[in-house]
């Protein structure tokens, strides 16, 4: 039974490498959008939950006492520095630039370690009041969702690259509430 299932999966992977696998790729794109949306939702809940616990109102950093307005970014920066020093060895760039680099030179393969580091680092950066947006992390996390899904299913490189594009589109759509713009951006 297990051997037969393995043979069927191998046939499916080979089929996805052919140009006539449009319906299967569309379904995988839908799954990627759902995975990316779930990860991005978790990211937003983590950021908004932490901000709700620290701040008197939504993004009301100016309402904090002066000492905390100084301590929060300093402490957050120190924590982010430690996180990337400890776990970010070999990473020189994250965010959208990393997605573009991995697409250009590594067939869209993004690692789980980098994805977790992006999630935690970006959340800490936003919560501690540093001047970053959520768009870059959304794009990266969406792309990582597509890449990791494709890797988990053992898909061929061209299919993984397609799923990364679907994840990028989901990230843009989640950031700006513009699904069509997400698709156009990922095609670019």
TrEMBL record:
Q: Name one Pfam family in it.
A: Voltage_CLC
Q: Where does the chain cross the membrane?
A: 21-47, 67-84
GO function terms (MF aspect):
chloride channel activity
Q: What's any one GO cellular component for it?
A: chloride channel complex
Q: Which InterPro entries match?
A: Cl-channel_core, ClC, ClC-type_chloride_channel
Which keywords label this protein? Chloride, Chloride channel, Ion channel, Ion transport, Membrane, Transmembrane, Transmembrane helix, Transport
Write down the membrane topology.
Multi-pass membrane protein
Which compartment or compartments is the protein found in? Membrane
Name under which the protein is recorded: Chloride channel protein
Taxonomic path: Bacteria, Pseudomonadati, Pseudomonadota, Gammaproteobacteria, Chromatiales
